[in-house]
Amino acid sequence: xxxxxxxxxxxxxxxxxxxxxxxxxxxxxxxxxxxxxxxxxxxxxxxxxxxxxxxxxxxxxxxxxxxxxxxxxxxxxxxxxxxxxxxxxxxxxxxxxxxxxxxxxxxxxxxxxxxxxxxxxxxxxxxxxxxxxxxxxxxxxxxxxxxxxxxxxxxxxxxxxxxxxxxxxxxxxxxxxxxxxxxxxxxxxxxxxxxxxxxxxxxxxxxxxxxxxxxxxxxxxxxxxxxxxxxxxxxxxxxxxxxxxxxxxxxxxxxxxxxxxxxxxxxxxxxxxxxxxxxxxxxxxxxxxxxxxxxxxxxxxxxxxxxxxxxxxxxxxxxxxxxxxxxxxxxxxxxxxxxxxxxxxxxxxxxxxxxxxxxxxxxxxxxxxxxxxxxxxxxxxxxxxxxxxxxxxxxxxxxxxxxxxxxx
Length: 408
Description:
Blueprint: H1 7-39, H2 43-60, H3 67-70, H4 72-91, H5 96-124, H6 129-156, H7 161-165, H8 169-179, H9 188-192, H10 196-203, H11 206-232, H12 240-256, H13 259-286, H14 294-304, H15 307-318, H16 323-358, H17 363-378, H18 380-407
Helix pairs in contact: 1-5, 1-6, 1-8, 1-11, 2-5, 2-16, 4-5, 4-8, 5-6, 5-16, 6-12, 6-15, 10-16, 11-12, 11-15, 11-16, 11-17, 11-18, 12-14, 13-14, 13-15, 13-17, 13-18, 15-16, 16-17
């Protein structure tokens, strides 16, 4: 494979493409208050616009199962077009509908790049999937940190939200350059000689269905929370974008150096640890304010960082015949769930603000209390995952024991 394909360049191109996704998310998280104020949106309306990016992402993932037939290069060219169109529409938006369509196009581009990235990395690095997929996904928080610091600087310099969106052009141009003229390997499923029927059967297995249920909670635990953290902590006395940067920095460190953890815990053990730390971090964030939120935010960022990439690695290790359809289903379910949760968080936040203000609280105090109440709701998702992954650990242990007895 290394003689036919430029593996380092393909890996770097995937990292740049994922960085484009990250910059779009962190920029949108930072500009939510600015856009809401300019257009007079409610938090529920802004949540609907922001959530569009995630179901647009899910729509883009439909291309994943067609990687065998369309080719990864063709899918990436469509992704590039969607990104450029989405950025242009968003920067020139005049209201709800134009912003909605622009956000949808960016989400579509994000989904198309992800439909290629995850199966490509799993195929290129079969011997070290969990470590390499985590390292690939580390570029999401790394780019979020760099993008977050940049948009914070832009905001302090009173540079408008439209120009902040233009930051996406840097990673988009980078992945376009790196992928230009490259050859891509066929998917692992095709190399194995597994039929389309085998792929569908693998995706319909109880294990795959279990993972789909888990990603429906794991994806919004990370992405929906980071999308709203700027707004939820806007009245706590701490610059909210810096809190987001801290979460992303901890996430990136965990993912980039995941290899030793994988060796000690196994893939399923890392999933359980991730869910436990995510729950603990969110629970502590919900009762912390100002500088005291930094420690829980770092704990949450470190823990939640493993949830999404390790789920992809677990699927590739245990159900390789699921192929690109399996990874696309995981991402589609995760992003669809996230799009719903982003909107629910906005509605829940609005409802709590109204309730606290009705009790006579000042607006700033009401928003701070509403942010805490909303985070308590979000913390229920990783709590459910703790139970689910505990069962997965027990199942894998039983499976290994049965194999040892059979071999003996």
